[in-house]
Amino acid sequence: MAKLRTWLPWLLLVAAALILPAILPPFRLNLLGRFLSLGIVALGIDLIWGFTGMLSLGQGIFFALGGYAIGMHLQLLSLAPGELPEFFGLYGVKQLPVFWQPFQSFVFTGLCVWVLPALVAGVLGYLVFRNRIKGVYFSILTQAALLVFFNFFNGQQKLINGTNGLKTDTARIFGELVGSDAMQRNLFWLTVVFVMAAWLLCRWLTRGRFGDALIAIRDDEPRLRFTGYNPTAYKTLVFAIAGAMAGVSGALYTVQSGIVSPQYMAVPFSIEMVIWVAVGGRGTLIGAVLGAVLINYAKSLVSEQLPETWLFIQGGLFLLVVTALPDGLVGWWRQGGPRHIKAMVGWPALAPTYPGLDLDPAAQAERQAFRSDLPPGGAP
Amino acid sequence: MDLLYDTLFNGLAIGSVLVLAALGLAVVFGLMGVINMAHGELMMLGAYTTFVVQNLFKNGPLAGLFPIYILVAIPLAFLVSGLAGLLLEKTVIRRLYGRPLETLLATWGVSLILQQFVRSVSSAFVVGLVVAVALGLLAPRLWPSSWAQRRWTPLLAVASWVISGLIGIILANGLGGVRVLDQPWFSARNLDVTAPLWLRGSVELGGVNMPTARLFIVALTAIALVAVHWFLQKSVWGIRIRAVTQNRSMSDCLGIPTETVDALTFLVGSGLAGVAGVAVTLLGSVGPNLGGNYIVDCFMVVVLGGVGKLLGTVVAALGIGVLSYVIGSGSLLLLWPAMPAGLNELITFFATTSMAKVLVFALIVVFLQFRPAGLFPQKGRLVEA
Amino acid sequence: MTASIAVPLVAPLLELRGVSVSFDGFWALNDLNLSLAPGELRAVIGPNGAGKTTFLDVITGKVRPTKGDVVFRGRSLLGIAEHRIARLGIGRKFQTPRVYQNLSPRRNLELAVKGSHSPFNLLLGSLDSRQRQRVQELLAVVGLEAHASRRAGSLSHGQKQWLEIAMLLAQDPYVLLVDEPVAGLSEEETERTGALLRSLAGDHTVLVIEHDMDFIRELDCPVTVLHEGHVLCEGTMETVQSDPRVIEVYLGVEDDV
User: Fold this and answer.
1) Which of A197, A273, C27, C227 suits a disulfide with C232, CB 3.0-4.6 Å?
2) Chain A residue with the nearest C-alpha to that of C121
3) CA C77 to chain centre
4) Based on the structure, what is the number of domains in chain C?
5) What are the pLDDT digits (tens) for B55-70?
6) Which pTM was predicted?
7) What are the beta bridge partners of residue C15?
8) Which residue of C has its CA nearest to B380?
9) Residue range C146-156: mean pLDDT, rounded
10) Chain B environment of A348 (Cβ under 8 Å)
């Protein structure tokens, strides 16, 4: 029985992953795949914010780096030898820039997608954490870093096509167009696998003593330091891991949306990522994924119907979650939120005074019998 | 040499706007430890206020006063942004006291709402909004008082707000059918504020050509600085603000109304953002995204300047402003034509506004490696309490 | 000038030599000299603002002295990061109990227990049986066995104080720096805490900072009085209490605020 309970969610997930492609139209499936891939970056944010207490407003950097890595690879993939990606011609670039060269290799790209963001995150994080910069200072520094990367990528036409970004859907993998329905279905499955893997990774990280140390950093960092721990090492490591997850997420998102551009590093997008986690429930892993999928689904629905109201809704959501639902939907659910609502409308659950006695089936049966003896209208 | 002064002067003007913009943010951050992400949008409100005042003075009976409309706009912008900030403090920030990261997110939410507000505000919209808020506030008085203590009272409160909101939306939509009422006041377009004639010329000073608009900004900043300095050092409420900044619980014990102090500080800080918004209209057009262009720079000023000292804010803002301008405008190349080729290339690489930001930020991060608490850190045992 | 105190025959374990700390011109510590012998139990008292907490901050590396030196087992501690000082064997209990509120007492102790504290070790390794046993022992010592799996945040004030002391013991340090261990405890709890601290001396060197004079008397150990950042006098509780300077400092004849 216990075994079934642990395996059932996974079985359901696998079943859903197999059935959904058959019943959803390709457009909706593609959207779902994209939103799921955003769940991975949300998991990373949950790790650093929900567990370790560091609010990064710059995850877009790592997200976009992952996206650019795969984007560059796909740009090069279907070129004849000696050919250059088309956009270079516009700026009069005759030779492939040096840093593009290694992206011809799939293995290198596959590594780069997560190692590069992890490295950047590690170095940035180390420089900040080393100086014990935390709290809002950390948040606004990450935001500034994000803006810097955004400006850099936006301004460098000759290196990475600037504002226009890199298109990926016209490239071919194994002779199949990346933008084709069949390929998108495969990418959907790949995303599902990666989300599960990311979830398992986070669970492994947060379950044991390592996770305890993260929570200790969040709750009382100086105390941990005086116990002989070096919080800088932990924070740097976990920030790098979150960076790597953002990179993978960005790569998956890029191949499913067909383009990577500096917009992935826009300031609002990175803050949105945080709100997915806040709405889902920080400190709960499943909440991060749920939040990412739900909010983005809502966003796409609202934007299709009433685009001008989305900012109102989103702003309201920020306010609502922060003031009324600090633990997010999953946290609210786990803390008995629905029970409270039910209690408000008049069906309060009986709180057992003496659980050993009151919950005894024999005692309950007796009470039932006693009740039915009373005349209708209740006790005197 | 003239070129050097020219560059420095322009950098100073940019830096002055940054001083004005960051001043309010720094005062609030120093007092409450709160970073107000909507600060840029409060600036935007100030800028839109200037636009409205300008329109009022353009035609009609007040047209004769057009040359001095900006002097009317300054206090008005202070008031509009200040009151908006006060409302923000009373409704949102107060509830999140001691949770700075949540405050950050909540104020970001507010900034989104404000941005969309100026895009879609129209007469119909305002009527709907006012009716919805009035209904929501009045609803509890319409119920029998016995309803106030029920189990389901919270649900009722939520429901009444939802219903008021819906009524407001329906009303706004209905009124939207009337063309005049549906016309957006500002729309999403960028608007140009016409400066009075005397702010469009320039003055020759020591062989340097100084646009009067920029001189005006520098002067405005200086006046604002003196005023804030006087307020904090000499006025009763200023002394209270400083007392709360240094030790909140002690001040509370001594009978200083800390809540009022918070509200007042927020009002003043937000009002300063409004004044900064007036200054910004002299440099470029006004749009819903105006705030976003300044806010990250303001944050950098706060990080670099440290908390609790006006001087830190001023030095950091001017430093960032001048440096960004000098690098971004590429005037270094003009100043020093005989530069070695390698350096020349490097400086050309960074000689755009956005690339200058890249370099300045890198320099800030390097600086923080040596002085993590900023230029003028507070010392003592309480700092990390 | 220092009152009679037995000069230790062994080399001191921890020594502060002429330590001064200045905060923006205010001297929180002023030429402070103090030495602790191995296995010693020492109480430090002093009026508010005497520099007691700063003194602990200096030893544990949180504050770097403006002048002077801190020597631990023949090695200077200046410029060494807090976590390294802690690993060298100096444990600290804070004034208000600071435990990890969202973790259970057992997990609190598992984090503190002696062993490698590197992230990779925490991820890939697990506690060995000796460490597990130590955690269990310590839970028993401070009487928290029954509450081992509750959230530490829901413990009573006294239980938190003890949990923090247990965390300190789990580190197995040479020196325990204990800041106000009985603040807010009941009489019975105070007594038990005193007994616990006395029993630790000998194996460990214990330095207790306390305001509660009865408690200090109970500890029955040498007392150091701090005033305005330097040592006013040292000696047994009796000698210290009869010292006119101490009386002056505590009762405030002059400008003592």
Assistant:
1) C227
2) A210
3) 17
4) 1
5) 888 877 777 777 888 8
6) 0.88
7) C35, C71
8) C23
9) 89
10) 151
